Amino acid sequence: MTGPETTTRPAAARTAPWALLDGAVRGVAKKYSQDRSAARLVAGGRAVVLAVADGHGSAAHFRSDLGASWAVEEFTACATPFAHEAARIGDDAALWPALREEARRLPQQVGHRWHGCALLQEANAPAHGSRWLPAADPTKPRERPEGPDLAAYGSTLIGAVLTEHMLFCWQLGDGDIVVVDAEGVPHTPLSTGPDMGDETDSLCEAEPWRKTRSHWQPFTGGAPPCVLLSTDGLSKSFADHQGFLDFATGLGGRAAEQGVAAVQAQLPDWLGRAATYSGDDTTLVGAITVPAQRSQP
Questions:
Q1: Which of these ranges, 86-95, 119-128, 172-181, 204-213, has the smallest mean pLDDT?
Q2: Is the pLDDT of residue 147 over 70?
Q3: Which of 84, 240, 251, 276 is the most buried (most CB within 10 A)?
Q4: Residue of 67, 71, 69, 63 whose CA lies nearest to 152
């Protein structure tokens, strides 16, 4: 056993209070995954941006991998400056109302940007080719095209911004957000109740921000130990919702006991086993609170 560290270390930058998890597996018998995700530390490690998107993947949504990519990219683009502002404001409660108002507008910003991506794609390479309405007078040429049909790009979206003082999260469509508190109790702040089958809200709809659910939660005793976002391929792999919640709680517990690196190393295997049950693409991202380290003498 070696002796105590005696070398004087130079002053280091403040360590980020979170470690990130990010894992994804392709669904059984699928050619490629329709899921996309992002997990980033921003604002010098004082905030986290998380996002998962699930392209619908059916025959009617045959370009939904593009839609899921745009969902994550555009959410991240909008949420990153928001996260910087949330980190700057910190625990100054007098500025929280303005921040919450900005959070309320964020889904519309993302929706507009996503639709812009889809419309640009349609202008250059229409999903169904060039389509025109039949002319009222068959002797005259057709004059105006049909409105754009963006269903081919349909995708869900879940996003979150986490700081040491608050959590913001947004959800359109299916999937799950789980917050595991300091007592190891899981909470699903945007849960909609029983699964409604294959029906889900989508970014391809008109004004999708009107169906986006949101949640804001301030922290009085510090950030929770574990915040997880996942596509519905994970929760569908369990016999019931409680089994899924137990998985989330157990993941947070293992991270605390074994370290986040060990959990990250095992994550592909866990998600792969889940995918064999659900048959769906399965993606999970998360932020795990890292205990503050005491400085060495």
A1: 119-128
A2: no
A3: 251
A4: 63
- Give every CB contact of residue 196 below 8 A, 6+ residues apart in sequence: none
Structure tokens given for 100: 């919450």
Q: Is the pLDDT of residue 2 over 70?
A: no
% residues pLDDT > 70 (the chain):
85
The domains of the chain are located at 18-126+148-289
Contact between 26 and 273 (Cβ < 8 Å):
no
Q: Is the pLDDT of residue 118 over 70?
A: yes
Cα Rg of the chain (Å, integer): 22
pLDDT confidence of 32, banded at 50, 70, 90? Answer: confident
- What is the 3-state secondary structure of 128-177? CCCCECCCCCCCCCCCCECCCCCHHHCECEEEEEEECCEEEEEEECCCEE
Residue 253, C-beta contacts closer than 8 angstroms, at least 6 positions apart: 184
pLDDT digits (tens, 9 = 90+) for 71-91: 999 999 999 999 999 999 999
CB burial readout 243-255, b (16+ within 10 A) else e: ebbebbbebbebb
Multiple choice CATH, 18-126+148-289, 3.40.50.1980, 3.40.50.20, 3.40.50.300, 3.60.40.10: 3.60.40.10
| Both structure tokens of 78 | 């909008």
Rounded-to-integer distance, Cα 192 and Cα 215, Å: 13
CA dist 21 and 15 (Å) reads 17
Cα separation values, 267 from 32, 134, 187, 270, 297, Å: 19, 53, 21, 5, 36
